[in-house]
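Figure caption, in words: inputs first, then the predicted bound structure.
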Amino acid sequence: MGNVVLNLDMNKIIEMRNYYGKNLLDKNIPGSVFAAKTGGCMVTAYKSGKVLFQGNDSEKEASRWGTASPSSKTSAGITKSAAKGDLPVGISQMSVIGSDEVGTGDFFGPITVVSAYVKKEQIPLLKELGVRDSKDLNDEKIIAIAKVIKDIIPFSLMTLKNEKYNQVQQSGMSQGKMKAILHNQAILNVLDKISPEKPEAILIDQFVQGSTYYQHLKGQKAVAKENVYFSTKAEGIHLAVAAASILARYAFIQYIDKLSDAAGFRIPKGAGAQVDVAAAKLIMSKGRDILPSFVKLHFANTDKANALVNKKRY
Ligand code: MG
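Bound structure (magnesium ion present):
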């Protein structure tokens, strides 16, 4: 039985709390954001950003969320994955396919994954156009930049709509596996688009360890493996990932706009209390059957929205 400790940012921890939805424990551990228990693992996330995984499946469970640095590892046996040191020297200036996703922590809306190819000669132009870490950009900027770069760089967008998401999630597929399949398909599409040209590297914003990524892809017809690298915070390593992230967010924003039109009111992003209220409003106006085409049903927000409807407090 091993323990794994990861240091994660608060966005990730909130994403995790939503992911564990039904597995959350009602325990109030001092300093913690949440505690959850899966079949073989106890997960405790602290306000400090430390997340502790305990139990037989601790390594497997932790690998969904990040990579333990050697110093934060409390038991042996964590497989090595691509730390920044494993990236090719000078990757930032290479011709790279970057891949990133949006929507995994949002109750409303799909998961959007984009892979985008940026040639080294295009890097200065993209910088000029304002492409950088999308976390530093508001929606307005994202939309403006996306509209320009979508015609400049080859990319592929994969959208996992809510109906399909809920279907595969209920069949037992993890979000990690969904993401791996979407990233792989988007990368293959871009490779196809730019062929016979080949990228010098393919950089995926890391959401699981490389070994887990390929495990998820077992059984897929084709898997892009050549020159594939993983890194956390990859948006800051190559503009191709930053561009992919901007395009993925643009697609996500457009989808939320569509959902808002269908709902007849503004659909909020994220997974906070505001989405519970919005979902309750939706149930009241359109009925419960509408929910699977709007939200990620396994999030704890579903129960909270239902509770609001039952109490008529929305
Ligand atoms: Mg990412």
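The chain has three domains: 2-77, 96-257, 263-313.
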